[in-house]
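User: My collaborator sent over this chain with a note saying "see what the structure looks like." That's all I know about it. Can you take a look?
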Amino acid sequence: MDMLTRIAGLTADALAQNWPDAQGLPTGDELRGFLAVPPDPAMGDYAFPCFRLAKALRMSPVQIAQKIAENWPHAEVARAEALNGYLNFFLNRGNFARETVEAVLAAGDRYGAGEEGRGKTICLDYSSINIAKRFHIGHLSTTMIGHSLKRIYDYLGYKTVGINHLGDWGTQFGKMICAYKLWGTKEEVEQGGVDALTALYVRFHQEAETDPALEDQGRAWFKKIEDGDPEALEIFNWFKELTLKDAAKTYDLLGVTFDSYAGESFYNDKMEPVIAELREKGLLTQSEGAWVVDLSEDDMPPCLILKKDGATLYATRDLAAAVYRQNTYHFDKCLYVVAYQQDLHFRQLFRVLEKMGYPWAKDCVHVAFGMVSFEGQALSTRKGNTVHLDDLLREAVEKARAIIEEKSPNLENKDEIARQVGIGAVIYTDLSNNRIKDIDFSWERALNFDGETGPYVQYTHARCCSLLRKAAEANLPEADLTTLDDDESQALLRLIGRFPDVIREAADKYEPSMITRAVTDIAQAYNKFYYEHRILDGEPEAAAARVALTDAARRVIKTGLWLVGIEAPERM
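Assistant: Without extra context I'll predict from the sequence alone. Here is the result:
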């Protein structure tokens, strides 16, 4: 139980003791939402505004605060002081230190984990790369936000289903097959992979400028895919295999995995029942030859389901995908980690599901995120201004290797540590701010070992590991954790004690950056503690306590980094 929950429960207990006949008093869970950390530590570790109780108790907030403070029965946890209608709590520092460190060490690698998700399933749709295209930096946010959320929900006991909803449908694949049949060879494509496919696609459009009949051939090949022609499907599936083989290298670098690669083409035979259901429920109307669901009452444009020629669209396939996922996984939530530009699409999608009468439509959530620029430059695939993600990751590792060579020339396993630091720097940059904010990736910021960066947090973890190795040789006695009553220790302990709450808040708000921020704060607080106190000096019991706090900080930093998909080197 975190300290915030504990204080709230004790406050509810004090209310019941002081006003045993009062009706409608808040529970500990309700009180917890009103507890806050005062801006000035001199005002207490936590504060509760008694204004919330004035109506129920028919007393002024000042009187309520004074009465509780005078009769506070839990001095072993904290003392309570009344100030201007607020109840300020000052923790018993020694007991707080002992309880917090013991809780972390007892939990091992599961500090902050929970079982609140047991029996519940969350589907996460993220990454969603396009077949026959290189994995670029624009896919970084969806991939890492989705991956982090999956780890967070796993940590809280949920069953998670990670889905890579591949972009593998459309006339471009007919064009690509046409180009391959005209100008490609199996050997060249096998050797060149996605780059060879891209070159064929580019050539198709160049040739089509002087030979428009190629467009008809491209459409004809896509029609063959739709109709299940064996040759067309064989080539199409081969293109998918090549793309996934190429993407697997990037996913391996990032440590990302999926449970399903069911993309757009998977729903080709699952759309007709959904379209039929829309017709049966009177939701389809004709508009200029196309079939739409009218959403004017929701102040949205109509949701296009079928084009004039009967072709389906993203919305058609997403409706089929949502129904399939509910029928297959029985999800309690289905998260779509997609850029904010698709906000209207998802509002339309979810509204159509509601109009179809699906009560689970409310459990579908668009987890939007901002755009990525690189060194101040906006990225555009059409303009050719792209940064391929595998190139970015390799460069990050190379730059990290150069920095490590300069800072720690005698370090063992420099290549492995450079990989951890370089990849971690890229992920941290992506997940360090609120997900809806746009990101400008900068090498100078990402690989800074002194700022609020991945390398800084990783270095702090390595510092803790180094100190623990030295402590293991010091033959220290059992720790007296109650000696951790100084300001630096307490500031670090408060952040560690709040960490389980941060995990749940990140899950509730679909916001991995909360965890990134929390581990950064813990790293900064630990370094302040480290510089203010000679960890292994002084009274042996107190030194052992500082070592135990170091171990607690190390564990929480490692867990936090893991939750956002970053490794924690033990030496740097």
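A starting point for your reply to your collaborator: Residues 170-259 form one domain.
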